[in-house]
Amino acid sequence: TTRLCGVSARGGGVRVPGAGLSSGIALGMGCAAPARDNTHWRPIDPADLALKDNPASPGSEAMILYREEYTDSMNSYVTEYYRIKIFTAGGKKYGDIEIPFNKRFSSVNDLKARTILPDGKIVEFTGKPFEKVVVKTGGIKVLEDTFSFPDVQPGCIIEYQYRLQYDSDYYWNVTWNIQENLYTREAFFTIRPPTSQGDSGESVPGLYSRTFGLPQPVHPVKQKDGTYALIMHDIPGLKQEPYMMPADMLRGRVEFFFTQGKLQTASKYWDDQAKKWAHDEDDFIHKKGALEKVVAETIGPNDAPMVKLQKLYARAQQIRNTDLPPIGPPPAHGEKLKDNNNVEDVLKHGYGNGAQINALFIGLARTAGFDASKVLFASRSKIIFRPKLEDSHELTGDIVLVRLNGKNLFLDPASPDFPFGLLTWDESGVQGIVASRKGAEFISIPALAADQALTERHANLTLDAKGTLTGTLEVDFTGIRGSGLRQNERGEGETDRRKALSDIIENWLPSRATFHITSVTWMKYPSAPLRAQGTISIPGYRTG
Prior knowledge:
This protein is of the alpha+beta class. It has nine helices and 25 strands. Strands 5-4-8-2-1-10-13-12 form an eight-stranded mixed beta sheet, with no helix packed on it. Helix 3 packs across helix 7 and helix 5 (305-316) packs antiparallel against helix 7 (354-367). It starts with 45 loop residues before the first helix and ends in a 6-residue tail after the last strand.
């Protein structure tokens, strides 16, 4: 199977394993189809206004009467339509809507919303949504457009619709998330698949789908206009529980993929994938002269092996990672990045995406005589890798494996804020696959040790006669704590970065306490602690 070029209402742009390290497929190329009209409202059924409870699940706070999702993978957008019935006062919370999106790669457009009161009166939403950050990791922000419906009350119906437009230069998951948190009475899904791939315009293989988390498999039906459609009824809500697995692992959904030829056994499938990844990697790093020049400039003949690796790691980290926002002033507006077709291009341009930076390090390490390979893995913050599914797009990340003196070193030079030997949290403690021309080798990436995430606090405080505690506080975020904060705050201004640290520190203190940052050491080499210094005041620390 290969990745379908398309979009997902819940997905994100990713580096695609096995899709090559250069430009790949661009969505929406040569497309002339008009945008889908999502400005209409469905007629209001008086019986729905009179509905007092969910007959399929009595006592419900609310239910989804109808939803419609249209995916246009040629033009890289998704339209959504929701109609929700509110039954109780507790159900009024469903009038607070959150639409997640990644601002770097997508935007929310054509938002419309309205409330239909129990007497049939319609109250239009005339405000503007408010953007708030809900996830900030790896320099990538996931935001939500949030808004609240007017006049929400038991017995009313609320409905809204919008278009989520994606960047056509990226690969996107194509997934219908069938199951919502609320019971859904009726749902209608449509996908318009791509009709060609890339500039060559060759025809794509057939569109296939598979079902997860539903009582029985469902398959979209091809329509006369070339789209595929699916109608679902009586979909139970996804029950939320403490410490549950990622919701997307449990949520009922339909995923799309292409396949060429007959389906394979899982073992054969992963062997073929690993060989292809290794072939692509070898093609990308096959620039012996350029690599030898850098190796000669970077390491000395008398350096110990570990010192050589550390120097080559630092050299790879000098390449700007275009997957992450820069630190400091952003690149010039409208900067046009050239394609990197091999490691020589990466060195010449001084930038590359994460996969290309890791490939450069592999090339440098091999040139210096090390056994280095690419390892692909599934981020544990998003999904649990299931090899039996034969689904390579679960493996959205890559790191580097170096075998040295019988030991495995797992490294990620593509993470510029992480020092040699330190992985991000979502890269650790998971199973990966080594890219090899011999076939797939499954390997366990070790979990982080406790001493790789320490926070040290040093205070010099004085208690005055009024019981107020004042003085200075110095906090060192070491290991993954410091590196993670550095990476999460990439692209932010100094004011926002300081506020993020202040919020963390103030959460440790009593509510009446105040903390003011006076200095932060952001830019030191990643192995150094991220140090925040400031003044602290806690009135009423002592009474009597």
